């Protein structure tokens, strides 16, 4: 017998966790002597009430969709991939190599090639931790953390010593040729005859992100491979008994996860910066953890959670601009969301289950 | 490279390894009791902030140390609640704690001091100062041993000596006391401890609390010993290096000393020689910075002796009913 109805499990529990997380965030804002209501107003105004705000919100959301999906796919295989940060950074390297060292006549040709580069590099960066987990039993959480740092050191080295154009001081690659610049959503809106989101970085990658959500949904719930991934995540002995090779599934799931994280580079490296800069990922890899947990590891949930975090991110920037609340408020909110929807899940779930059990007993008697 | 340079590098390695050693021993207690802790980084950061703030406000570094321990303990309590009481995912809880500390320290720092997340510089009694051990100056003239004593062994803050003393102490507690036996048993096979009538919950909370105290000392050392005040994100990945050292040491106290010394030495060398020229090849500083992580991955891969974590690590204990 199920302890509580499905809607309570899927919607009510995460909703209460979220309310708790935001309530404590409000308390934090109160504690530093600001008004939570005012803060929310500034955030909504700056992120949602203008097409300019939306342009940034959607841009950030696109990043978080990719990293959120990356965490999600690994999670279904029972793996906790904290390495999205490093995989996305190395994905950026793949994009950069493709765009700088091959001649591209048009962005429409460059885009698929850059996507392959991003996905391939991201996947390769996840391959070693995956293989170590599958064959040597070393914990994937630790190895992916280590690979984040190794990625940062590697990129730092490459940007300073190899990719930096001669005469330039800042550790960044050369700018990509103009032919490879992706169309911004604002350009596309102009093409359709109206003005929207001028000077914002939201670009065509947003639609690729939506496509990625659909594909991941198909993969996890409508393919044999997805079934095997979920089976392994639920119970390894059962999966082995059903003839599923854990090694194979762990490696494949992590390759897909790394590829998704790497694809984020299409948005931030190819779409926004149009060159590779140091720390281009800016923590989006870690926000993916919060996004996946909040989205209940479902692509639709991930999409909604990514939008929410895009809003928080853009709103947080506005807060720092117009109030005395620093940007870091967003990190606190992110931490609380991870804590309540991830680690303290049972704190909400246990009393709820008890409540529904009591209701059922009364109903039955 | 002459003898004096080597001494300077080893001296700075001792300084740099101290926060790693304290955090590593902190993680050792927690993980030996079966509670994975990737929140060492966050706890150290929070402790660095609270210790620097209180030391600045009161002008007394010892109160700062207490505040540092308090700050880290508060986060330990959150970790304990999530991973022991509510049987949540310990790794996710650790990640949350790291972000919580990264955000809260800047938010509170900006509110209290208005310096963009920094605390004002600490001076005088608000810092830990170097202690010159007896006869250090008199013995300096003695060949070889004299300079080693005066340069490397003498002239550190009290927290450095405390950290080194904690290594044999931890060994003794872990392997020679009843508490240590139970602690290790709780991490390997909690059901057996439960059967013996010892509360698994209480043992694990004790371990997590010890972890918090040690992280607190580590953070206080960072902000009031090595530096004169707190700066945003000042732990800079040291919690993760401590975690790496813990795996490197295979969750044992004496090897933890050597692992953290090795990692401290790497940091000291890369500080001193940003681009190390070995004659035939130049090693960039980024490589030296990444080396602890690379070494840990190699150790984890089991190519150089296998690192096997405590068996019940990461699993919440559910009493059978």
Oligomer classification: heterodimer
Indicate the CATH topology of the largest domain in chain A: ABC transporter involved in vitamin B12 uptake, BtuC
Helix and strand pattern of chain B: HHHHHHHHHHHHEEH
CATH architecture of chain B: Orthogonal Bundle
Q: Could you tell me the mean pLDDT of chain B?
A: 89
Number of strands of chain A: 0
Helix content of chain B: 55-70%
User: Would you tell me which CATH topology of chain B applies?
Assistant: ABC transporter involved in vitamin B12 uptake, BtuC
List its salient traits.
heterodimer, A: 365 residues, mainly alpha, ABC transporter involved in vitamin B12 uptake, BtuC, 2 domains, 0% strand, globular, B: 321 residues, two-stranded antiparallel sheet, transmembrane transporter activity (chain A), cell membrane (chain A), transmembrane helix (chain A)
Describe the 3D structure.
- The complex is a heterodimer of chains A (365) and B (321).
- Chain A has 365 residues and is an all-alpha fold.
- Chain A folds into 2 domains: 76 residues, no CATH class; 266 residues, ABC transporter involved in vitamin B12 uptake, BtuC (Orthogonal Bundle).
- Chain A has 15 helices and no strands.
- The model of chain A has no long low-confidence stretch (mean pLDDT 91).
- By secondary structure, chain B is mainly alpha-helical.
- Chain B has a single domain, classed as ABC transporter involved in vitamin B12 uptake, BtuC (Orthogonal Bundle), CATH 1.10.3470.
- Helix content of chain B is 69%, strand content 1%.
- Chain B has a two-stranded antiparallel ribbon with strand order 1-2.
- Chain B is globular, with a radius of gyration of 20 Å.
- The mean pLDDT of chain B is 89.
- At the A-B interface, α5, α6, α12, α14 and α15 of A face α3, α4, α11 and α13 of B.
